[in-house]
């Protein structure tokens, strides 16, 4: 899996639930932690803000901000508390007009085990209108430096055509 950016994340004892593993809702916080740190990293070499060198977060201004539009997480195996940090790997899977999608893997830092795959859709929005605004060219260029494949989610097989789901029209009569 691509690792355009790896954020080392120290688990906290409070991340663990009564089942003895990291609670599923904590994974959303892990994604946010990695995303916020990534956006504060210096821009890749050769990519600059209009006012010089900067960070991706510099494109979030008094005029606009980013919103999460969607999250998807697939849990692959339990993550147990331990003192060694894990890795939250992040990459860009799609760059749209006003939105971008991120892929993540929550892994051992050396990639030997993967605990979850995730994806987030983000939208750049005007503070004054609440409407999406176009991603600046410099930000698109920075995102392209972190581009990678789609998240390899395991998809459920489609239901057979002759199977009627509960509550759907067309049941036995």
Set out the fold topology:
Elements lengths: L4 E5 L16 H14 L24 E12 L10 E10 L3 E9 L6 E13 L10 H8 L29
Antiparallel strand pairs: 1-3, 2-5, 3-4, 4-5
Model description:
- There is one protein chain.
- The protein is globular, with a radius of gyration of 19 Å.
- It is 13% helix and 28% strand.
- The chain has two helices and five strands.
- The longest helix is centred in the first third of the chain and has 14 residues, at 26-39.
- It is α+β, with helices and mostly antiparallel strands and 173 residues long.
- The N and C termini lie far apart (49 Å).
- The mean pLDDT is 88.
- The chain has a five-stranded antiparallel sheet with strand order 1-3-4-5-2.
Total E-strand runs? 5
Order of the strands making up the biggest sheet: 1-3-4-5-2
Approximate helicity band: 10-25%
Average pLDDT: 88
Largest sheet: 5 strands, antiparallel
Instruction: Specify the overall morphology.
Output: globular
Q: Termini, distance in Å?
A: 49 Å
Radius of gyration, in angstroms, nearest whole number: 19 Å
Give the tags.
173 residues, alpha+beta, 2 helices, 5 strands, 13% helix
């Amino acid at each position: 899996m691509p690792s355009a950016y790896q954020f080392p994340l120290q688990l906290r004892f409070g991340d663990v639930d009564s089942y003895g593993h990291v609670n599923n809702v904590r994974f959303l916080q892990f994604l946010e932690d990695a995303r916020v740190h990534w956006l504060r990293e210096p821009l890749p070499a050769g990519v600059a803000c209009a006012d010089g060198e900067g960070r991706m977060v510099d494109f979030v201004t008094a005029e606009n901000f980013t919103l999460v539009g969607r999250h998807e997480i697939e849990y692959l195996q339990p993550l147990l508390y331990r003192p060694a940090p894990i890795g939250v790997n992040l990459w860009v899977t799609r760059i749209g007009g006003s939105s971008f999608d991120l892929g993540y893997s929550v892994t051992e830092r050396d990639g030997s085990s993967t605990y979850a795959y995730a994806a987030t859709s983000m939208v750049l929005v005007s503070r004054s209108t609440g409407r999406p605004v176009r991603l600046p060219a410099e930000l698109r260029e920075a995102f392209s430096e972190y581009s990678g494949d789609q998240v390899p989610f395991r998809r459920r097989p489609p239901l057979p055509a002759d199977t009627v789901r509960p509550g759907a029209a067309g049941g036995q009569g």
